[in-house]
Amino acid sequence: MSYGKRRGYRDGAIAGSRPERAIIDIGSNTVRLVVYGGTMRAPTVLLNEKVTAKLGREIAATGRLADEAMALALRGLKRFALLLADLGITDIETVATAAVRDAANGPDFAQQLRAIGLNPRVISGEEEALLSAHGVIGAFPDARGIVADLGGGSLELVRVAGGATDSASSLPLGTLRLPDHRRGGRAEMAKSLDKVIRKGGWDLTANPAADNGALYLVGGTWRAMAVFAMAAQAYPLSDPHGFELDAAAALDLANRLAASETEVIKGRDRISSMRAEKLPDAAVLLQALLAQLNPERVVFSSWGLREGLLYDRLPPHSRAQDPLLAGVAVFSSNRGSAPTLATRMAAWTLDAAPAREHGSERLRLAATMLALASMQIEPNIRLPQAINWALHKRWVGIDGKGRAMLAAAIAANGNQLSLPEPVRALASPEALEEAVRWGLALRLARRLGGQSRRSLEVSKLGIADGALVLTLAESHAALFGQPTEKDMKLLAARLGLSWRVAIVPESAL
């Protein structure tokens, strides 16, 4: 029996997630395999492997895919096909973008892919733009502005607003083609790029007062640019997804990188040599985009074409799910914390410690799920690991302030009220205090009855006449022990209230 048919061999091998879908993305620069598990609304990446084949490196000069580039790509793709067979994954989508669609021998290469068992779909520039935009919408449901997906062979631009797309186009400005515009130096390069962008119908400077929203940057080279900016700012988070700059700061970044030498950039942590070589040219492109598109801010997105492929296949009710809660729910479930219990506890603590001006109920529920999941971790490593979940795991639909509030709630649930400096750097004291109250209320709910459903049914927490009141059914009056009293005092003190316990018949609850 093959390993692929022995379902137990691979199931649950990574964080309890079963591999469900795979996407093979054949780009002009890299050929990549990504295997996804969990919920497809906020998928977990179980395997991510790439081959830097540079399929599009000779298209501008010869109009063809280079033989050695095809050989390197095929070597990687044969490995991908074998891996997927052994893993038993049959839901596989293979897409090819600019290099294959533009090359004269692209159809021949696609035929070679079919011979190894893959079924490639060569997508148009407009379709590539729309898929990238759908990926951005999936990550940022309220996205409004312009998506710019920079690949090796092309730059896709598309407007997004209200969950819809408009004006999709593809320009021949991929990272492999940018050097062709550099022959007269960087100043002349900027003028050349301006012409291509305007010719594509993207000169929005005619109305400087127009509100053009955000510029969402998609692609590995843009993400490397974000990593550079985050390091320069000593930004406390590690994931470039969701990192944003106002327009002035984005222009400063572009100016700095455009004037930088590749060798200097190569010395930076988390920036590969390949990306370092492309950053100065990409920075000149960003200068041109900022000048022509006039965005109010720049947002870096790790979600793009591949996530757009996943998002497009979701039914409407799944698309409508909150991506943060969808991702946290699966993550927490795989770590022994049922979302139903978290929902009950969030409801039980609502009257005493709701989301107020700084947070939201979705954020409070996410914090509750993560905090309960953290209780499955060994006590000696629990809080550092759970705080890292909040700060550094790739959640979608959340910003730095939200991550800090997640971390503060998790810390308070563990009775750690002195918050780490990275947490304090991301949110105001008032926002963190609100989240600490969430965590202390959860600590009381969790410890009152050992997380039993019954303890939540026979008790109630609220505020009345300037006091924090714990109401217990007579049958469960003994639940109010010394640990519960300590938790009540701690929460009441943070709320600036006195506290009391009321014992009533269960019918009065």
List keywords for this structure.
Nucleotidyltransferase, domain 5; Hypothetical protein af1432; single chain; elongated; disordered N terminus; alpha/beta; 509 residues
Topology, element by element:
Blueprint: H1 7-10, E1 21-26, E2 31-37, E3 44-51, H2 59-62, H3 67-87, E4 92-96, H4 98-102, H5 106-115, E5 120-122, H6 125-139, E6 145-150, E7 155-161, E8 164-171, H7 186-199, E9 214-218, H8 220-233, E10 244-246, H9 247-258, H10 262-266, H11 273-293, E11 297-301, H12 305-312, H13 316-319, H14 323-333, H15 339-348, H16 361-374, H17 382-392, H18 400-413, H19 421-426, H20 429-448, H21 453-457, E12 459-464, E13 467-473, H22 482-495, E14 498-504
Helix pairs in contact: 6-12, 7-11, 8-11, 9-11, 14-16, 15-16, 16-17, 16-18, 16-20, 17-18, 18-20, 20-22
